[in-house]
Amino acid sequence: MEKQVAIVGYAQTGYGSYVDASREILVLEAAAGALRSAGISREVLDTVVTATNDYMDGRTISNMRLVEPSGAWFKDESKVEMDGAYAVLYAMMRILSGDHDVAMVIGASQASVYPTYIPGVMMLDPTFDRERWLLNEVSAGALQARAYMDAYGATEEQIAGISVKNLRNAAGNPLAVRRMPVLTVDDVMDSRMLYSPIRELNAFPPSDGACSVILASSEKAEQITDNPVWIHGVGFSHDSYLTERPLDKLGSLKQAADRAYAAAGISDAKDQVDVAEVHENFSHEELMAYEALGFCGEGRGSALLESGATKMNGELPVNPSGGALAANAACAAGLARIAEAALQVRGEAGSHQVKGVKTALAHGQTGLCAQENIVFILGGE
């Protein structure tokens, strides 16, 4: 990329249930934390991009009440619907346009105020699938899991292994909802069945929370910090509706990754990426992501997991934070992957830090069965 954009600050709230708080308080906490992280004041910001969802918020123009807590008053302010990883792309494009130098991106959701897993119904075809009330986020994910298992022979126990790895990792992440240092495959298999083969510990926990990331042009970044995290490449892709595409692979994630790798000059992802933060709404999606991201061959995701390569001490750790299985605020889950990847590059991830990280991958998704995917490649100096 000819011009570069860097991450110069970030912050996350804790994730969980904040029924006595409000979205505005969560956004205020994340915004203030990111400004402190970058060591700058609100006045330095040129533009603010929020990621929220009108349906989940129960109000139209859901960003209008976030102007003050996000620090966006008298600033150029805009909104991206759903995942904050896409808001980072939007903010990055604003900086690359030359119109802005410093941008704050904030994603926030409050799952405690809407029915669990129901919002996905609104993504369905309104004339047929939505009217039948058979599909939702989890039942669609179950169809995806079964298609992958049938195509490549993955077992429920192997899929449960992703939950074990990630939720054990989350024990080192003080912000996570699920912190399970002694979780076993049997524990996952004994958890409540949602839609076969997806059990409760195979699915993301709907969470309240917010995440904020501050971006800056190369000139401003070097003025703000001695340790910028550069965005070396980004790629995104949007697939067809879930009934019009094969569900046994993540085609749009592969396209997104290939574009990000090309921009970042990566020819061998398994060898050149030091750590990956993958947005896995369900355990099986991480296995599928291994293949789409080029970490292993098609159908070899389970073998890669069982080799130990993606564990914290493996050659390519995936989701040292615990991933979205450990905490998932819907509009902040992908943005949190970016913040966590930046933490790894800076060596600031604390008890879930991976040693020697120079290049990190961050992945976000939206839509049923990972319909849309976005990949960022981050690195230090």
% residues in beta strands: 15-25%
Find the count of extended strands (DSSP E, 2+ residues).
Answer: 11
| Strand arrangement across the biggest beta sheet | 3-2-4-7-1-8-11-10-9
The CATH superfamily name of the domain at 5-114 and 206-224 is: Thiolase/Chalcone synthase
Uncertain residue ranges:
none
Annotation field: number of helices: 13
**In sequence order, what are the helices and strands, one letter per element?**
EHEHEHEHHHHEEEHEHHEHHHEE
Q: Mean of residue pLDDT?
A: 94
Whole-angstrom Rg: 19 Å
Q: In the CATH classification, which architecture of the domain at 5-114 and 206-224 applies? A: 3-Layer(aba) Sandwich
Structural class: alpha/beta
Task: Tell me the overall shape.
Answer: globular
Taking the sheet with the most strands, its summary is: 9 strands, mixed
- Helical fraction equals 25-40%
**What is the CATH C level class of the domain at 5-114 and 206-224, in words?**
Alpha Beta
**What is the CATH topology classification name of the domain at 5-114 and 206-224?**
Peroxisomal Thiolase, Chain A, domain 1
Question: How far apart lie the N and C ends?
Answer: 15 Å
